């Protein structure tokens, strides 16, 4: 494990998450015994898998002190008010742009119309995101990104993380009734890779703070419920354009003016 910590991190992240998602996906197709409701408890595994994998590998390879440093990066809050505004309202602007492009180009929105009022849906999405998304960021950005950036340029590290992050979600597309199963996988995958540049830019620009990065993740998922009529094809366009602007403005080497965060 000490020779390939990032490889082991991803093996554990995928294995732990898919241990929860695959049985639930099978159950949604009526495969016994996974169609029983009590298998839903397995969904705790995807929620914690990136952090759990990161903690296991960090503890074995780097020691107990590094585990504390990894988790503390989630509460590094002194990054400037502007970054919090970007983290909260940036996703809103991106989704509104996607909504506008969807209407302009006549794309069909993938999201089904809500069957209840938006406020309870938004609160539910926010609570679920609040308790799951930060733990993803501990793994993807807190552990993997700075170690990949030590070996590769920021844009190459971003492509690796974005691609693996997209593939990590794959079982959700086979889970009947899950909102993501309505998306065509390839454009959703491309949008995920593209938006990863935003996360890297924020992480490097705030010197390795996971708090604004986690807020972006939470805001995207929450506003995604509120802002209807957004096609995944339009998000590919919006996210790709934003990624291009970041690369051109800040350079592919660091994707920030302050340099890239390296570790490991």
Structure, described:
By secondary structure, this protein is mainly α. It has a domain at 77-250. It has 9 helices and no strands. The protein has helices at residues 5-28, 44-61, 64-72, 81-105, 118-151, 154-168, 185-205, 211-226, 232-250. α2 crosses α3 and α4 (81-105) packs across α9. The longest helix has 34 residues, at 118-151. The protein is globular. The two termini are 13 Å apart. The model has no long low-confidence stretch (mean pLDDT 93).
Summarize the helices and strands and which ones pair or pack.
Elements: H1 5-28, H2 44-61, H3 64-72, H4 81-105, H5 118-151, H6 154-168, H7 185-205, H8 211-226, H9 232-250
Helix pairs in contact: 1-2, 2-3, 2-5, 4-8, 4-9, 5-6, 5-8, 6-7, 7-9
Mean pLDDT: 93
Low-pLDDT runs of 5+ residues are: none
Instruction: Give the proportion of residues in helices.
Output: 55-70%
DSSP, total strands: 0
Structural class: mainly alpha
Q: Characterize the largest beta sheet: strand count, sense, and whether it forms a barrel.
A: none
Order of helices and strands: HHHHHHHHH
Intertermini distance: 13 Å
How many alpha or pi helices? 9
Query: What sort of overall outline do the alpha carbons produce when their principal axes are compared?
Result: globular
Strand content: under 5%
Rg, Å, rounded: 18 Å
Concise structural overview:
This protein has 264 residues and is mainly alpha-helical. The protein has nine helices and no strands.
Key structural traits:
264 residues, mainly alpha, 9 helices, 69% helix, globular
């Amino acid at each position: 494990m000490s020779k390939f910590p990032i490889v082991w991190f991803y093996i554990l992240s995928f294995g732990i998450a898919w241990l929860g998602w695959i049985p639930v996906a099978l159950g949604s197709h009526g495969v016994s015994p996974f169609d029983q409701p009590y298998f839903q408890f397995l969904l705790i595994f995807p929620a914690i898998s990136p952090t759990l994998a990161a903690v296991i590998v960090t503890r074995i390879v780097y020691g107990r002190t590094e585990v504390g440093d990894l988790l503390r990066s989630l509460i590094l809050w002194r990054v400037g008010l502007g970054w919090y505004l970007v983290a909260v309202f940036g996703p809103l602007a991106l989704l509104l742009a996607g909504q506008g492009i969807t209407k302009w180009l006549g794309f069909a929105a993938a999201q089904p119309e809500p069957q209840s009022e938006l406020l309870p849906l938004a609160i539910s999405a926010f609570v679920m995101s609040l308790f799951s998304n930060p733990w993803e960021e501990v793994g993807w950005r807190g552990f993997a990104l700075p170690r990949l950036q030590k070996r590769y340029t920021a844009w190459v590290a971003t492509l690796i993380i974005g691609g693996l992050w997209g593939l990590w979600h794959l079982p959700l597309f086979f889970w009947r009734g899950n909102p993501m199963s309505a998306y065509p996988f390839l454009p959703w995958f491309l949008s995920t890779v593209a938006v990863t540049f935003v996360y890297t830019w924020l992480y490097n620009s705030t010197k390795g703070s996971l708090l604004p990065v986690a807020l972006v993740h939470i805001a995207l998922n929450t506003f995604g419920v509120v802002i209807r009529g957004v096609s995944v094809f339009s998000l590919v366009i919006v996210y790709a354009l934003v990624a291009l602007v970041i690369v051109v403005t800040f350079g592919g080497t660091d994707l920030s003016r302050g340099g890239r965060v390296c570790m490991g």
